[in-house]
Amino acid sequence: MIFVEKTSLAGLSEEERQEIEEASKTLRKARATSVHKLLPLTVVNQREEKP
Fold this sequence. Notes:
Blueprint (H helix, E strand, L loop, with lengths): L1 H9 L3 H20 L18
């Protein structure tokens, strides 16, 4: 997958590559600073216990 992305980027102009790089930086920062909310999960024992 990475090879395909790098090959696709190679076909773009320098200006387009810079725009994509800036967008990537912005997304990485947003993901790094976003608050990760934990979902309330309940543990369910699905094993049948033998008597």
